[in-house]
Amino acid sequence: MTTRSILITGCSSGIGFDAAHTLAGRGWQVFAACRQEADCARFRAEGFISPRIDYTDEDSIGTGLSEVLEHTGGRLDALFNNGAHATPGALEDLPTDALRAIFEANVFGWHTLTRRAIPVMRAQGHGRIVNHSSVLGLVVMPWRAAYNASKFAVEGLTDTLRIEMRDTPIHVVTLNTGPVTTKIRENSIPHFERWVDWRASPRRAQYEATLLKRLYESRGGPDLFELPPSAVTAKLLRALDSPTPRPRYYVTRATHLMGAARRLLPTRGLDWLIAKG
Questions:
Q1: Which of 78, 205, 206, 211 is the most exposed place for a label (fewest CB within 10 A)?
Q2: Which of 147, 207, 249, 250 is catalytic?
């Protein structure tokens, strides 16, 4: 049997890191892409092929995918769009350029890489595209407007692509992940500090009482329903291995609960539930 190949983005830590190592251990030919060259070098030292792919750098998307295809003879069995970041802050305090920046990384770069991968999968007669969304692609949470919006956009693009690919042998799958142990909160701090002038905000007291503590103070323990990255990898494997994968896989109890709440509650009821935290 030909070794299956997969390109995974955002592998420097957390979910991408776990997925890359787990799939490699199961015999996949894993291309572990990272945004920073130093992280790629770390993977290469472990024996991985690690192209540098920065979703905000279209040239790196092209050269990274070309590197993958050179090693596989032009084949790519699966793409896992995973790399993303958050920019926390109240919506009224987010400059529009902050939204542009997060959409470049979390949406537009995914679209560019996916469009480049589709012709490869069409030519070989099969393929899997798995997009890593979030519970925040189903419902919103306050202080996360930029991330919420980017994940809602991913939901729209992925749902559309799944329907449009029905007449092809390419399967398109969404993973909706709730709280998982990663560095996304820590990694969001530079974006928050770049874009949000919280000291000048009318919500300064709320920042000091809530968001700043969450960002800068050490956590006393995991969030409610938080799971390790391996929980996401387990659902990724199901999406990759099933002959007929589900369109969508929920990860964590929080995602199941909020998915049900969105279906069952009126808008005001859902707003009340989310505002209660």
A1: 205
A2: 147
